[in-house]
Amino acid sequence: MNINLLETFKNPEPGRNYIITIKIPEFTSLCPKTGQPDFGTITIEYVPDKCCIELKSLKLYMQNYRQKGIFYESLVNQLLNDLSFIAKPRAMKVTGDFNARGGITTKVEAKTGKLF
Amino acid sequence: MNINLLETFKNPEPGRNYIITIKIPEFTSLCPKTGQPDFGTITIEYVPDKCCIELKSLKLYMQNYRQKGIFYESLVNQLLNDLSFIAKPRAMKVTGDFNARGGITTKVEAKTGKLF
Amino acid sequence: MNINLLETFKNPEPGRNYIITIKIPEFTSLCPKTGQPDFGTITIEYVPDKCCIELKSLKLYMQNYRQKGIFYESLVNQLLNDLSFIAKPRAMKVTGDFNARGGITTKVEAKTGKLF
Amino acid sequence: MNINLLETFKNPEPGRNYIITIKIPEFTSLCPKTGQPDFGTITIEYVPDKCCIELKSLKLYMQNYRQKGIFYESLVNQLLNDLSFIAKPRAMKVTGDFNARGGITTKVEAKTGKLF
Amino acid sequence: MNINLLETFKNPEPGRNYIITIKIPEFTSLCPKTGQPDFGTITIEYVPDKCCIELKSLKLYMQNYRQKGIFYESLVNQLLNDLSFIAKPRAMKVTGDFNARGGITTKVEAKTGKLF
Amino acid sequence: MNINLLETFKNPEPGRNYIITIKIPEFTSLCPKTGQPDFGTITIEYVPDKCCIELKSLKLYMQNYRQKGIFYESLVNQLLNDLSFIAKPRAMKVTGDFNARGGITTKVEAKTGKLF
Amino acid sequence: MNINLLETFKNPEPGRNYIITIKIPEFTSLCPKTGQPDFGTITIEYVPDKCCIELKSLKLYMQNYRQKGIFYESLVNQLLNDLSFIAKPRAMKVTGDFNARGGITTKVEAKTGKLF
Amino acid sequence: MNINLLETFKNPEPGRNYIITIKIPEFTSLCPKTGQPDFGTITIEYVPDKCCIELKSLKLYMQNYRQKGIFYESLVNQLLNDLSFIAKPRAMKVTGDFNARGGITTKVEAKTGKLF
Amino acid sequence: MNINLLETFKNPEPGRNYIITIKIPEFTSLCPKTGQPDFGTITIEYVPDKCCIELKSLKLYMQNYRQKGIFYESLVNQLLNDLSFIAKPRAMKVTGDFNARGGITTKVEAKTGKLF
Amino acid sequence: MNINLLETFKNPEPGRNYIITIKIPEFTSLCPKTGQPDFGTITIEYVPDKCCIELKSLKLYMQNYRQKGIFYESLVNQLLNDLSFIAKPRAMKVTGDFNARGGITTKVEAKTGKLF
Questions:
Q1: N or C: which terminal CB in chain J sees fewer CB atoms within 10 Å?
Q2: Nearest residue of I to residue E99 by CA position?
Q3: Which residues of I touch J52 (CB under 8 A)?
Q4: Who contacts I57 (Cβ-Cβ below 8 Å, separation ≥6)?
Q5: Which residue in A78, A80, A103 is closest to I25 by CB distance?
Q6: Which residues in F lie closer than 8 A to residue J99 (C-beta atoms)?
Q7: Which residue stretches of chain E have pLDDT < 50?
Q8: pLDDT at residue G30 greater than cutoff 70
């Protein structure tokens, strides 16, 4: 993924620990084995440190997965890695809830630091 | 924002810790990047100390954001700062639940002190 | 759209009027003005005549809209036209329920013949 | 399908028009194209004439589809044909509600006579 | 069934058409093929003529099916026949909703006269 | 029942057909066979003519059934008769929804005139 | 009631039949027999003719019932009469849903003309 | 309002009568008497003739009411007039559901032609 | 069961403890005593170590139970054993929720390691 | 009760502590005082040791209560005693939720060992 798409802005209140929750119910990527589209909801929760993730740039970054083949497990960890690398949050959790494929639904949850 | 719009009145029972919850489901401001209107629900929970926040003045203060461009993260922290500065509560939590923009919903939660 | 992707099979019971309802909740295309992704649910109801629409080919045909810019109104009418051209049903109705964009949701309904 | 599995018993009240509704939420067959299992709910509604469908034999008859490849449209019409052939009801409706495959759900409804 | 268990009392208002609805969610009988217990809900709706069905006697009459093997279709029609014979209502409808057996649920509805 | 308990007052608008709906969810009487308490909800709907039923007197009248043994069917018809006699409405419907007794629930509905 | 409190403004579109629905869930008056407060929801539906009812004046008019003893039936009819007198609508319906008193809830509905 | 903001595009299927439903849950304007903000949901249903309403231009047109003082009744009729003038639909219905003000909620519905 | 059907892929983030939850609502096997089909939902939760379970291979592995007679208790433990053997997770829990048979529903839960 | 009806089979995984939950919503017995039928839901949770309870034999054992008069308290304790005697589980809990009799519902819970 092109991590350069992600922009941040200065955390307006770095002296305070507070939580930002972002929900993206229209996520879509491709299955790396079949090339068929996958659909799901991505939830990002984080405590910002020096900067916050800018939402429009996040939307564009997420859209880059639209034509990319990637496993659910790789996707969730890559999101956690990319967003952590860019925003260096004090803590972050990424959850992917994926729609049924072949009658099977999958959820992947990964985090760094202690959110609550 | 014009913090002078906010008024308080004497806490009728300062000898007791009690909780006040205010919900404002008709909040609207502008996106600082696109100028487009944002909509959301602001929830304020606090334990008053010497004074309580007067509700009509709070309504007028909130309406001042109607034509202002501001990030969600700045807004929630500014609300917490302004209301804390005026009312000096023993504890306060401000939550902003913002409507979907580009298919993405966002929630920001910030607090001072220990509410519960 | 590539109408050649659509396959049909012989209606197993042409002597009987019966109804087939197909729901596609994972439809996505692009906005022709902004290039941004659109999401929605497409519902197809029809009474087959000589042939039925094969579902796997329908899935592949629908996936062709993934990278195509098209207005909702054009999409729903094109689906009705393409599917009618291929399957020549006795009656058909196509409904598109599209997710909010800029805080606005849209539904488009079009039909040919009398379904019920 | 082996129609001989189906048994009937004498309608205990042939002088009266009454309705029997049978729901089979655990139906499973195979996709004729991919060999993958399909799942769905079959509903049978009928007004008996000379005989009623015996439920245990119906269960065994339905289980015969477990390893059979068949299109949804063929299945629903074949059920209507077989059950009508055996029980010769005054009216019958068969509905198949099939689970999502490739993100697409399908319903097929067919009937003979006038049920209500 | 021992129809003698059923008692009636004089309709307190024979000059008026009115509706009585009785629901019995704890009905149980035996399967005539396997001897296994069946469970279901019986609903009786009727317009009384000269007499009403006494509820305690109805309960005792219904309990007589507890150890009796009977098909659902026979049961519902027998209830309609017995209750009609005893109470001679202007109209009556009996519905049996039976719990799943072998993954199959069944409903049987029969009536005499015009209830509504 | 002591019909003298019921009071009416002058219909404030006799030139107009309008509907009054009264719901009494706390009704209780005794079973005439066992002496056990019965519980239920009584609903009264009527179009007043010259007078309306006064609600406090209705409450007192209803409380008179507390120690009285009466069949559901008699109760609903007696209510319809007494209230009609006192208020002479253009139309009235009385419904009694009675709680389970011996696992059996009962509803009785009676009316005079045409309510809607 | 002081009908002079009610104000109207010119119907902006008298050439068109359209419907206005006003719901007032915070209505309160006094019971004329006991002096106890009554609470309820008043709903007003109307098709305007030459003028529309101004909402702030309606709120003040409704508040005038706060200290007034009045029967539900009189209230609903008086509202219909006063509002019809002031606004002369093409059709109007007033509904009062009153909270439980002594375990009894009451609804009164009155109308003039044909609303739909 | 600046009707010039509204854009249309060629109806892709003028030979067919079909229905477009647009829901705008984030509408806000000002009260013409108090200057206070009003909030509500606007629903537009129409059968297009020669052209369709472009959604992004509709969003911008609707945002023009953000700082405008206007009565609910005028707003709904003006929307119907402006959108009809621009798009000349075969039929159109506009509904405004407005949030509580002073404890009073209001709905206004207006239409031209026959939608269904 | 043929454990060879199961495939794994390299855990993309072995340095992190994260949870994968897989839900299979279309599981079916045979009763080892009667040969009749059983239906249920299997849920697998695990923390991967060196590798992740590939979902398409899991689907094919699960389909192998379609014609196999097995007790619920054996099934859940065998799934836990096979999946643990192949993927060697840091922790895993398998839950089987089985549909009613003879009016009896059964749930079996087994785990290794500490999931949360 | 005839404890000989109960069968067990070898615990397929005695080296692991895992939980089996069995729900029987169609339980019925007789009241020992009145001879009237009682209805309820029995839930059995246990950690097996050397053997598991075979479900078909459990069904037949439970059906033996159909014509037996027994107090709720005796029933739940006898189930716990009989099932513990036969299966010698590491821990077991039996819960009986009984339907209303005379307007009264009853729940009885008993256990041995530590389930969780």
A1: C
A2: I103
A3: 71, 73
A4: I5, I6, I7
A5: A103
A6: 103
A7: none
A8: yes
Q: d(Cα J39, Cα J66) in Å, to the nearest integer?
A: 10
Beta strands in chain H (DSSP E): 8-10, 19-30, 37-47, 51-53, 91-101, 104-112
Distance CA H36, CA I80 (A): 63
Q: Number of E:I CB contacts under 8 A?
A: 11
The predicted structure's pLDDT at residue E98: 97
- Is the separation of the CB atoms in A110 and I18 below 8 Å? yes
3-state secondary structure E31-94: CCCCCCEEEEEEEEEEECCCEEECHHHHHHHHHHHHHCECCHHHHHHHHHHHHHHHHCCCEEEE
CB contact under 8 A, J100 and F102: no
C26 interfacial to chain D (CB closer than 8 Å): yes
Integer Cα distance of E66 and J68 in angstroms:
13
Nearest to D48 by CA among D24, D76, D19: D19
Residues of A labelled as active-site residues? 31, 38
Chain B residue numbers with beta carbons less than 8 Å from the beta carbon of C103 are 37, 39, 99-100
Inter-residue contact I108 to I72 (CB < 8 Å): yes
Amino acid at residue number G22: I
Collapsing DSSP states into helix, strand and coil, what is residue J98? strand
Compute how many other C-beta atoms are within 10 angstroms of the C-beta atom of residue J33.
8
pLDDT in tens, B11-64: 999 999 999 999 999 999 999 988 999 999 999 999 999 999 999 999 999 999
Write the residue in C34, C103, C110 that is nearest to H16 by C-beta. C110
Where b means 16+ CB within 10 Å and e means fewer, I33-64 reads eeeebbbbebbbbbbbeebbbbbebbbbbbbe
CA distances from H63 to B63, C98, D82, F40, H60 (A): 16, 21, 61, 54, 5
User: What DSSP element (H or E) covers E65?
Assistant: none
Distance from CA of I52 to the nearest CA of A (A): 8
Under DSSP, the state recorded for A113 is S
Which one-letter amino acid corresponds to residue E97?
A: D
Question: Phi first, then psi: what are they for J101, rounded to 5°?
Answer: -130, 120
The answer to whether I92 and I53 have CB atoms below 8 angstroms apart is no
Answer whether G90 touches F (CB < 8 Å).
no
CB pairs < 8 Å spanning I and J: 60
Instruction: Specify the pLDDT at position H80.
Output: 96
- The mean pLDDT value of chain H amounts to 94
Q: Where does residue B85 rank: exposed (0-12), middle (13-18), buried (19+ CB within 10 A)?
A: exposed
Given the cut 0.90, state whether the ipTM is greater than it: yes
**For residue range B5-23, what is the model confidence (pLDDT) as tens digits?**
999 999 999 999 999 999 9
Report chain D (116 residues): mean pLDDT per 10 consecutive residues: 91 95 97 94 97 95 96 97 97 97 94 81
CA distance C33 to chain D (A): 27
Residues of chain D with pLDDT > 70, as a percent, come to 98
Chain E residues whose beta carbon lies within 8 Å of the beta carbon of residue D25 = 103, 105
pLDDT in tens, C53-99: 999 999 999 999 999 999 999 999 999 999 999 999 999 999 999 99
Distance (Å) from the C-alpha of residue A93 to the closest C-alpha of chain C? 26
**Residue E111: strand pairing partners:** E93
Q: What is the pLDDT at residue J1?
A: 66
- The pLDDT, as a whole number, for residue C116 is 60
- Identify all chain J residues contacting I114, using CB atoms and an 8 Å cutoff: none
pLDDT above 80 (res G37): yes
Q: F14-34: per-residue pLDDT in tens?
A: 999 999 999 999 999 999 988
Per the prediction, chain C carries an average pLDDT of 95
Question: In the annotation, is G82 catalytic?
Answer: no
Is 90 exceeded by the pLDDT of residue G33?
Answer: no
